[in-house]
Structures are given as C-alpha cells and as structure tokens.
C-alpha cells in the first residue's frame, strides 16, 4: 500500500484507488457520511459542494451540486445501495437525476483498519470499458478521483 499517494489500478471497466490514512476507521467513515464534512473536501481540486438533500440510509438519495472552478454547476444524484458502518459505503451515481448528465457508475468505498489508521479502497465500476474511457476523456475522471482523495487527505489533516 502506498502511504502518501493514491495507488490507482485500471482493470477493464473499473478503477480502483487505494490510500492509507493515519486516522481511525470511524473518523474516515464519518467524513464520507455527513454533509458538513463532505462540503469541506468532496470533489476534485477547485470544486466546492452544496448538498441539497441527503438521506444516508440503504436506498437513500443524496442530491448535491458540485461548483466547478470554471463557474459551471454540476448537479449530481447518488443512491446509497449498501451501508455498513464503519466498514463500507456502496452507491450508484445516477447522473444529475434530470437526464442531462450522462455519467452513471457504481462505487464501493471500503474502510479497513490498519494498526492505528485505515486503508481506504475506492472502486468505481462503469457499465463498460468503453464507458470508463469516454467518461475519463470527457471529464478527466481518473485524475479527478485522485484529487478527490487528495482533498480528503488535506481535510483530515485539519481535523487532527
């Protein structure tokens, strides 16, 4: 496991990101599950977040807007499919919920205790390898996810 950077593995239609965090599993889970934390770190570099609504339960919906550094707003809708505190969060990204945004994938966020810290695995599964390539080319998805995890790391440093 790479301790300071994000290990990234691309396998067909999925991308797996791994990183060790020097914080307890419960804290890492908490910052993935509460809007007041998510607004401090969610998204790639330069993005900010506004949560419209969040039902953090199995089957619950999280609607939010990512505000890009270019001034563009990106509506997003996520449905939580399986949550087991503090072990994992599985969800489906449903685009913008209005049919305009064409990005659909599933994510598995896995938190595994490792000594005093936590190993995080974030897996994104796209409908096909071609869809992953299209989304990456159009939106810079892989680099954006690495920045997303980097911003999480910066936020956790502030909480220590």
From TrEMBL:
Boundaries of every Activator of Hsp90 ATPase homologue 1/2-like C-terminal domain copy: 22-157
Domain of life: Bacteria
InterPro entries xref list: ASHA1/2-like_C, START-like_dom_sf
Family named by the database record: Belongs to the AHA1 family.
Protein name: Activator of Hsp90 ATPase homologue 1/2-like C-terminal domain-containing protein
Species of origin: Leptospira johnsonii
């Amino acid at each position: 496991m790479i301790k300071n950077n994000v290990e990234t593995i691309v396998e067909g239609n999925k991308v797996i990101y791994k990183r060790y965090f020097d914080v307890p599993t419960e804290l890492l889970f908490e910052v993935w599950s509460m809007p007041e934390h998510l607004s401090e770190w969610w998204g790639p570099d330069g993005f900010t977040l506004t949560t419209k609504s969040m039902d953090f339960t199995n089957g619950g919906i999280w609607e939010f807007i990512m505000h890009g550094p270019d001034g563009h707003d990106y509506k997003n809708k996520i449905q939580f499919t399986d949550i087991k505190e503090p072990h994992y969060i599985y969800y489906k990204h449903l685009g913008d919920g209005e049919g305009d945004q064409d990005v659909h994938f599933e994510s598995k966020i896995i938190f595994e205790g490792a000594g005093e810290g936590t190993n995080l695995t974030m897996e994104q599964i796209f409908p096909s390898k071609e869809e992953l390539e299209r989304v990456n080319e159009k939106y810079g998805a892989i680099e954006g996810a690495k920045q997303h995890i980097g911003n999480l790391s910066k936020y956790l440093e502030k909480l220590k």
